[in-house]
Amino acid sequence: MTLPDIQRINQIARQAGEAILQIYAQDFEVREKADHSPLTQADTASHQLIEDALGRLTPDIPVLSEESAAIPLAERRQWRRYWLIDPLDGTREFIKRNGEFTVNIALVEQGFPVLGVVHVPVTGVTYFGDTVDGAFRQEAQGNPEQIRVARPCATPVRVAGSRSHAGDSLVQFLRKLPGYEIISMGSSLKLCLVAEGKADIYPRLGPTSEWDTAAAQAVVEAAGGQVTDTKLQRLRYNQKDSLLNPHFLVFGDNAIDWSAFL
Prior knowledge:
Elements: H1 6-24, E1 30-32, E2 38-40, H2 41-57, E3 63-65, H3 73-76, E4 81-89, H4 91-96, E5 102-109, E6 112-120, E7 125-130, E8 134-138, E9 145-146, E10 157-162, H5 168-176, E11 180-185, H6 189-195, E12 201-204, H7 210-222, E13 226-229, E14 248-251
Helix pairs in contact: 1-2, 6-7
C-alpha cells in the first residue's frame, strides 16, 4: 500500500499545535476523565481538528484517538490500516506549562506503525518518519534533517526517563547498568531522543496507552532503532480489547541485550 504524503500529516499536526497554543496562552479548565487522567479544552480542540482533517485527506482510513477510544475490538480488528492519534500527549506537562507535550499522529498497518509524526507545539519542532524515506527532525522554520539512532551507545549510557512517572522499576533498571546519565523528559519526546541519537535507551516500566507510543515508534524505527516489549519482541498494536501497552524498551544499539538489565 502506498503511504499518504507525510508532509500533509506534518501540516495537520502543526495546525493542531497552533490550536493547542491558543488555549495554552489562556487560563484553561482541567477536567478528570473516568480513568482519573486530566483532560483540557486543548485535548478536545486538537482531537477535533485532526479527526476532521484526516477525514478529508483519507476518508477511507478510520481514526482511533485517545479522545474516541471506546471502539470495540470486534470493529477495530477489521481495520487493515488506521490512524492512531494522541491529540495532546503529555497533558500533565501541558498543565505544568513546561512545554514538553506533543501532537502524535501515526498510521498503523497490520499491527505496526508505518508512518509517524510527533510535533512539539511550544518549540515548533517536528519529528517524522516512515518505512520508505527514514526519519527526520525539522525546526519550525528550518529544513528537515535526517536523524539516526546512536550505535554503538555512549559511555556512560544515556537513559531517557519520565518527567512525571519515574518509579521503582526504573530505579532497579538503573542500578544494573555499569554507569548511566539520566535525561528527564515528558511525553513521547523520550522516544524521539533515542531516534535522534541523544539518548541510548528509554525503559518504560509503567503504564502507557497505544496512542502514546505509535507515532514515535514509527520515528524510532525509521531512524534505525527498536521499540520492543521486555522480551525484545517488536511492540504491536490493535491486538486486544485493552489499548494499554506492555512495559517496553526503546533503544538504538541492538548489539546489547537490554532485557538483561530488567
